[in-house]
Amino acid sequence: MTATKHEHAFVWDGQKLLPCECGADMMAIESALHPAADDARGLAGDAYYTGCRLRQELEAVELWLFNAPEQVVQELEGTHPGVYLIHNDAPRPLSALDDLRDSFDWAAWKAEGVRVWAVGPTVDGYLNVGVEDDLATAQKKLDAAYGGNVVRVSQQGPIFATHA
User: What span, in angstroms and rounded, lies between the C-alpha atoms of 42 and 79?
Assistant: First the structure.
């Protein structure tokens, strides 16, 4: 990876992704970041790991942890020095989000008038519930059921493919 003091900007020219004007190549950066992202979950463990995303423009892996002890943070930083942007304040680990997702009662929410199209974890520790319409009402109903600060409602709907 290139040493940089700026955020990389990559441009799609209509045929290919052009490198940043500093010379950084997004694919080279990604190939260096993927191993750090893959290692994060194993190093943090199920009790602390929440999620991560590659930040090519910063040459970093943004990582969310749930109250990990300093020893875990130090091990991550020591394994891939200077690569992680660690947020150790996620509201819950991925394992808890997986449990919430797996117990989600689609039929019950449909009966409540909430048309749900997707349910899954966010990288920063929330359960994303994609609904078709009336986001505010869906958020209120889901907050009443799950408590505040657990579910984030987003706009989703059916995907219709068109064929020529």
Answer: 12
- C-alpha dihedral, 30 to 31 to 35 to 37, nearest 10°: 10
Handedness of CA 158, 101, 90, 59 (dihedral sign): negative
Q: Which DSSP string corresponds to 14-45?
A: SSSEEPPTTS--HHHHHHHHHHHHHHHHHHH-
At residue 82, the 3 state secondary structure works out as: coil
Strands (E), 25-125: 49-55, 60-65, 84-87, 116-121
* Residue 162: both structure tokens together: 């068109």
The mean pLDDT values, 10 residues at a time, for the chain of 164 residues are 53 56 58 87 96 86 97 96 95 97 96 94 97 93 96 82 45
Number of other residues whose CB lies within 10 A of the CB of residue 10: 16
Distance CA 14, CA 99 (A): 42
| CA proximity to 132, closest of 156, 112, 109 | 156
d(CA 110, CA 136): 16
| Type of residue numbered 42 | G
